[in-house]
Amino acid sequence: MALFPTYNRYNVQVKEASGTEVVDIDGKTYLDFGSGIGVCNLGHRHPAVQKAIKVQLDQYWHVSNLYKQPIQHEVAQLITDNSVGDYVFFSNSGAEANEAAIKLARKATQKEKIITFGQSFHGRTFATMAATGQDKIREGFGPMLEKFEYATFNDIESVKQLIDDNTAAVMLEVVQGEGGVIPAEQSFLTELMEVCQEHEVLVIVDEIQTGIGRTGEKFGYEHYGIEPDIFTLAKGLGNGLPVGAMVATKELGDNFGPGTHGSTFGGNPLAMAAAKAVLETMFTNKFLNTIEEKANYIADRLQSVIKPLPVVKNIRQKGLMIGIEINTPVGDTVAELIETGLLTLVAGENVLRLLPPLTVSEVEIDHALYKIKFGLENK
Q1: How confident is the prediction for the chain on average, in pLDDT?
Q2: Residue 2 to residues 5, 6, 25: CA-CA distances in angstroms?
Q3: What pLDDT is attached to residue 51?
Q4: What does the alpha-carbon distance between residue 209 and residue 186 come to, in Å, rounded to a whole number?
Q5: pLDDT tens per residue, range 219-248
Q6: Sheet harboring 202-206: ordered strands across?
Q7: What domains appear along the chain, each with residue ranges and CATH number?
């Protein structure tokens, strides 16, 4: 085996995928409620995205960011027209987008400290490992990048205790995904914005998992009525093609001038074609309303089918981002569900995470929940 063993891979060898279905090399069909860890928000091989990629493929694949590429500007405009942001930097991944956000915050403020939160996840580069509030992510790699400190999520007093004159930014997810699908409380975020404004501290919202419709809004921060100075995107933005974005307000624009940051493949035209198709498809009231309808449907079904099971401790949900907390380790359950033809995810030790495509049907929701019910009944 020529690959580094960095993943504990399940014994599923994918042959093809379409919509909510994945088919392995033996012809077995799986219902995909992981969406590539929240990437294929429009389902696998969505027709509009596939068509856009094919059109771009016949034009050009790559030139250089030294030249103007109209499609980059079009995608950036779609993001800024639909958000609080004014400037966009394109990268290849969420970790790179977060790395850019950290650099921008430090450069713009000329301060060093970044406050993040326990159980957060922001990536696996050195800066984003340091930003991640989980010891297991940082173990074995020696000293981390300095000046990151960790507050307690949903505890504003813990933030106040850490803010000082050297604090550049507070960085958070509005729903902690890897940490267990834990939504922020409205009162916490409202007061956090007030505290940061008072101390002239920037607010960075990591929307890698919550962005692009996952929570039922275009971006997760919209649920809370807040306006971050910087937010980051990836995962669902390209629906399977690698792309990330760091988005910032106009006040920060002059801090990333020529030579301050860059990426050879950031804004790759194939990824931009996919992103443009995703945003044009998804950023309509009609589409967003369908997410809300499905989220309400699955919420009702979770309460009636899953919540009564003795093993279930809690169910947390924001849109189509769902965590089912059980009182036993969840790893075996995920493996057992694969055998039944359902792909799900782990979030922490005890949380079964569901990130179905936003195009999922009510019939598919019912099929998935009954598989989960069967899998959890005897735990």
Answers
A1: 97
A2: 9, 12, 20
A3: 98
A4: 19
A5: 999 999 999 999 999 999 999 999 999 999
A6: 87-91, 244-248, 230-233, 202-206, 167-172, 113-117, 148-151
A7: 14-32+285-376 (3.90.1150.10), 48-282 (3.40.640.10)
